[in-house]
Amino acid sequence: MKRLTLLVGLVFLLYTGNAEAVTEGELSIETNPTQIKIGLGFSGQPVDVFGRVPEGSQLYLKITSPVHKLPLDKKGKVGPLWMDVEHVKVDGIPKVYQVWTTGDIDDLPSGLKEETGISSDYGFIRASAGVYKEKDGAKESLPRELADEYIDALVKIYENQGLYTLREGVIRTGADNRFRFTIDVPANVPQQELLLSAYAVKDGKIIDTVKVHLAVRSVGIVNWVRRLAVANGPMYGTITVILALAGGLVISVFSNMMEKVFSGKTRMEAEIE
Amino acid sequence: MDIYLPIARVEIATFLIFGLGGMVGLLSGLFGVGGGFLLTPLLMMIGIPPAVAAASDTNQVVAASVSGTIAHSRNGNVDFRLGLIIVAGGLLGGTYGATLVRALRTAGNFEVVVKLAYVLMLLIIGLFMFFESLKAIRSKGDREIKSNSAVLRLAKRLPLQVDFPVSGISCSAVMLFVLGLLIGLLAALMGVGGGFIMLPVMIYVLGMPTHKAVGTSIFTVVFTAINVTLAQSILNHSVDIILALILLVGSSLGAHFGEKIGRNLKAERLRIIFSLLVLGVMTKMMIELLKFPASLIAIGGGH
Hints:
The complex is a heterodimer of chains A (about 270) and B (about 300). Chain A has about 270 residues and is an alpha+beta fold. Chain A is built from seven helices and 13 strands. Chain A is about 35% helix and about 35% strand. In chain A, a hairpin with a 2-residue loop joins strand 5 and strand 6 (about 80-95). The longest helix of chain A is centred in the C-terminal third of the chain and has 31 residues, at about 235-265. Helix content of chain B is about 70%, strand content about 5%. Chain B has eleven helices and five strands. In chain B, the strands form two sheets. In chain B, strands 1-2 form a two-stranded antiparallel ribbon. In chain B, helix 2 (about 35-45) runs antiparallel to helix 3 (about 50-75). The longest helix of chain B is centred in the middle third of the chain and has 30 residues, at about 110-140. The radius of gyration of chain B is 19 Å and the shape is globular. Strand 5 of chain A pairs antiparallel with strand 5 of chain B.
């Protein structure tokens, strides 16, 4: 009896123990590669995203990076001249925001849009971002209408850089409700953990959610440079200056040697002539 | 062959960076200027963030100016003693200049005033040098400037008179220090290296021979550039060492060849070409100030 129980248990485990462990009604998602390594030869990375959606459901996948802060400048006319007239900072905004779906984003009820943070006009980016001026150490938040102008401009910049995108209806499910598509991660992706939040939506309700992390990290000399530049500015600055001084010296000596070799005479002989 | 820049966080063709460095280095060797005024906007055009472009090109200026100084000194065209006195004043002026910038920014309209002052200064220097050197080319007489400026006459009455046999002038060390201080102040206000201002001052105010002014000017730029590189690394962490290394290989080679070309140019021709470069930069700045920008809002940072 004991052996029979063990056998049944083993069969059960074998049947359910495959990599996906998916039963009907479950959403699964994986990436290949599972992390992005940035070295000196990095020029962006195609990432395969694949998995399975529950029968009859639509897949909404959101990819985001942690929020960050950055400065923006605005040009205006001063007399006849165009100059930077305003300097602000934007915070609470992710550097990566991508939405990939099987269906239309506007098919989502507004409640689900809020729950997933997905909308067709980057509305949740605007809602979470803050725009402010700094004066004498104090922060002065901009009113919503003025702040939106900056956020819209920043969204456009990130869209042009391939960091922000809305790709409705791009994901296709095939046999057995499986899907597979490729994301082109650009070279200027932030070196942080990207969060892939997948939602299976059916009859106006989220029936399953899966979150997967995609680590983006620098390796080798890129990692060493970034760490030193931030952690020890004086040392980093000294190293760059020493390298520049040495570089200028070495190249000057080398160029002079080459000149002598190719001219076939010494400088003094050339000057005498 | 593309390379990923760790601080700029972009990937760029290596030969493009090398070529830009070489071109700017050529100007350094030819005219004794740093070249940052050209390189920063060029780097931004190829996708380098403004703050990283400004900081990294200063680092390559160190290399180009070292290479140029060595090349010029082999021909006896660097007055180290005179240069060091000006550098001492320049570093102090630059430090005060940074404080003055902060105070003027709070007062408001700082950028308007600085940009207009910079354009006006370039126009005056460019036109003055152009007509002076054109006159010298046409006269076919003595090619070097015999300066008898009011500043020089005043300088002869000040204490600490020193002979500078390399430049062939004698001048008060106090005057040189004060000139360096004013140039450093102006450079800090305008966010430039100072080579543009240094060269005409050395030629027309101090009466230095043109080739010696070029060599001595590029020597002073070494120290300004080191100062700014360290400041950018410590305060902003925006120097991209990989970008700077590729730039400096190109610019050091360019500076070496720039000196060779300059050596074969007559002094007044060198001055007229420099004046055209200055007027060209001024025109480019005026166009940028007058034309409708491609985008009203951009990511901040840089000069």
